[in-house]
Design brief:
Blueprint: H1 13-23, H2 30-40, E1 47-48, H3 49-58, H4 65-77, E2 81-85, E3 91-95, E4 101-107, E5 113-116, H5 119-131, E6 139-145, H6 148-151
The protein binds zinc ion (2 copies).
Length: 153
Protein backbone atom coordinates (compact mmCIF):
# COMPACT_ATOMS: atom_id res chain seq x y z
CA UNK A 1 0.00 0.00 0.00
CA UNK A 2 1.40 3.37 -0.93
CA UNK A 3 0.61 6.13 1.50
CA UNK A 4 -1.26 9.11 0.07
CA UNK A 5 0.95 12.10 -0.65
CA UNK A 6 1.16 14.19 2.46
CA UNK A 7 -0.31 17.31 0.97
CA UNK A 8 -3.42 15.44 -0.08
CA UNK A 9 -4.15 14.19 3.43
CA UNK A 10 -7.34 15.33 5.07
CA UNK A 11 -6.76 18.16 7.46
CA UNK A 12 -3.51 19.09 5.73
CA UNK A 13 -2.68 22.79 5.50
CA UNK A 14 -3.52 22.66 1.80
CA UNK A 15 -7.00 21.27 2.38
CA UNK A 16 -7.55 23.72 5.23
CA UNK A 17 -6.63 26.59 2.95
CA UNK A 18 -9.07 25.25 0.37
CA UNK A 19 -11.80 25.05 3.00
CA UNK A 20 -11.03 28.55 4.21
CA UNK A 21 -11.26 29.96 0.67
CA UNK A 22 -14.54 28.16 0.08
CA UNK A 23 -15.98 29.46 3.35
CA UNK A 24 -14.88 32.98 2.43
CA UNK A 25 -16.37 32.51 -1.06
CA UNK A 26 -12.97 33.04 -2.65
CA UNK A 27 -11.68 31.13 -5.63
CA UNK A 28 -8.77 28.78 -5.35
CA UNK A 29 -6.70 30.62 -7.93
CA UNK A 30 -3.35 29.56 -9.31
CA UNK A 31 -1.65 32.53 -7.66
CA UNK A 32 -3.08 31.70 -4.27
CA UNK A 33 -1.82 28.18 -4.67
CA UNK A 34 1.65 29.35 -5.74
CA UNK A 35 2.00 31.68 -2.77
CA UNK A 36 0.83 28.93 -0.46
CA UNK A 37 3.48 26.59 -1.88
CA UNK A 38 6.27 29.12 -1.39
CA UNK A 39 5.41 29.61 2.27
CA UNK A 40 4.92 25.93 2.99
CA UNK A 41 8.12 24.84 1.25
CA UNK A 42 9.81 26.42 4.28
CA UNK A 43 12.98 27.01 2.34
CA UNK A 44 13.99 29.62 3.04
CA UNK A 45 11.94 30.37 6.11
CA UNK A 46 10.49 33.77 6.94
CA UNK A 47 10.01 35.21 3.47
CA UNK A 48 8.50 38.64 3.06
CA UNK A 49 5.99 39.53 0.36
CA UNK A 50 8.63 40.97 -1.99
CA UNK A 51 10.74 37.81 -1.66
CA UNK A 52 7.77 35.55 -2.40
CA UNK A 53 7.02 37.75 -5.40
CA UNK A 54 10.63 37.59 -6.65
CA UNK A 55 10.74 33.82 -6.29
CA UNK A 56 7.53 33.38 -8.28
CA UNK A 57 8.73 35.75 -11.01
CA UNK A 58 12.04 33.90 -11.18
CA UNK A 59 10.06 30.69 -11.78
CA UNK A 60 8.30 32.40 -14.67
CA UNK A 61 4.95 33.13 -12.98
CA UNK A 62 3.33 36.44 -13.83
CA UNK A 63 1.89 37.61 -10.56
CA UNK A 64 1.62 41.05 -9.06
CA UNK A 65 3.12 41.99 -5.75
CA UNK A 66 -0.28 43.25 -4.61
CA UNK A 67 -1.82 39.83 -5.19
CA UNK A 68 1.01 38.11 -3.35
CA UNK A 69 0.53 40.52 -0.48
CA UNK A 70 -3.22 39.96 -0.33
CA UNK A 71 -2.77 36.20 -0.45
CA UNK A 72 -0.31 36.28 2.44
CA UNK A 73 -2.84 38.27 4.46
CA UNK A 74 -5.48 35.65 3.62
CA UNK A 75 -3.17 32.91 4.83
CA UNK A 76 -2.69 34.73 8.12
CA UNK A 77 -6.46 35.22 8.48
CA UNK A 78 -7.02 31.53 7.79
CA UNK A 79 -4.60 30.66 10.60
CA UNK A 80 -2.23 28.84 8.25
CA UNK A 81 0.58 31.33 8.42
CA UNK A 82 1.78 33.89 10.85
CA UNK A 83 3.25 37.29 10.20
CA UNK A 84 6.45 38.13 11.96
CA UNK A 85 7.93 41.47 12.80
CA UNK A 86 11.66 41.04 12.35
CA UNK A 87 12.41 44.69 13.04
CA UNK A 88 11.93 45.83 9.45
CA UNK A 89 9.15 47.95 8.02
CA UNK A 90 7.40 44.92 6.53
CA UNK A 91 6.21 41.55 7.79
CA UNK A 92 7.79 38.18 7.18
CA UNK A 93 5.68 35.07 6.91
CA UNK A 94 6.05 31.52 8.12
CA UNK A 95 3.72 28.54 8.07
CA UNK A 96 1.83 27.71 11.22
CA UNK A 97 2.92 24.37 12.56
CA UNK A 98 1.92 22.25 15.50
CA UNK A 99 4.97 23.40 17.40
CA UNK A 100 3.98 24.99 20.69
CA UNK A 101 6.14 27.99 19.92
CA UNK A 102 9.57 29.09 18.95
CA UNK A 103 11.74 32.14 18.99
CA UNK A 104 13.87 33.91 16.42
CA UNK A 105 17.42 35.14 16.81
CA UNK A 106 17.73 38.03 14.38
CA UNK A 107 21.10 39.46 13.44
CA UNK A 108 20.95 43.23 13.15
CA UNK A 109 23.95 43.40 10.81
CA UNK A 110 23.39 40.62 8.26
CA UNK A 111 19.69 40.01 8.82
CA UNK A 112 20.10 36.26 9.25
CA UNK A 113 17.29 34.64 11.26
CA UNK A 114 17.73 31.49 13.28
CA UNK A 115 14.97 29.67 15.10
CA UNK A 116 15.24 28.27 18.57
CA UNK A 117 13.11 26.48 21.09
CA UNK A 118 13.67 26.20 24.79
CA UNK A 119 11.78 24.08 27.32
CA UNK A 120 12.48 26.43 30.22
CA UNK A 121 11.35 29.45 28.25
CA UNK A 122 8.06 27.76 27.45
CA UNK A 123 7.58 26.82 31.11
CA UNK A 124 8.40 30.37 32.19
CA UNK A 125 5.90 31.88 29.75
CA UNK A 126 3.25 29.43 30.91
CA UNK A 127 3.87 30.61 34.49
CA UNK A 128 3.54 34.23 33.37
CA UNK A 129 0.25 33.25 31.74
CA UNK A 130 -0.98 31.57 34.92
CA UNK A 131 -0.15 34.64 36.99
CA UNK A 132 -2.04 36.81 34.51
CA UNK A 133 -4.91 34.31 34.19
CA UNK A 134 -4.06 33.88 30.54
CA UNK A 135 -3.97 30.54 28.81
CA UNK A 136 -0.91 30.36 26.60
CA UNK A 137 -1.25 28.24 23.48
CA UNK A 138 1.97 29.14 21.77
CA UNK A 139 4.53 31.86 21.71
CA UNK A 140 6.63 33.75 19.23
CA UNK A 141 9.64 35.64 20.41
CA UNK A 142 12.03 37.90 18.53
CA UNK A 143 15.53 38.42 19.91
CA UNK A 144 17.76 41.00 18.20
CA UNK A 145 21.55 41.04 18.28
CA UNK A 146 24.63 39.91 16.40
CA UNK A 147 25.17 36.44 14.97
CA UNK A 148 28.47 34.63 15.49
CA UNK A 149 29.92 35.65 12.12
CA UNK A 150 29.04 39.31 12.57
CA UNK A 151 30.15 39.42 16.18
CA UNK A 152 33.59 38.04 15.27
CA UNK A 153 34.17 40.65 12.56
ZN1 LIG B 1 25.03 38.41 11.18
ZN1 LIG C 1 10.07 30.92 12.69
Amino acid sequence: MTPAPRNRAKGSPRSKFGAFLRAARLKKTRTRELVFNEIFSRSPLHLNAAEVHERLRAKGHRVSLATVYRTLKLMVRSGLASALDLGEDHSHYEPETNRPGHGHLICLSCGRVREFEHQELRALLARVGEAEVFHMKKYSLQVFGACRECRDK
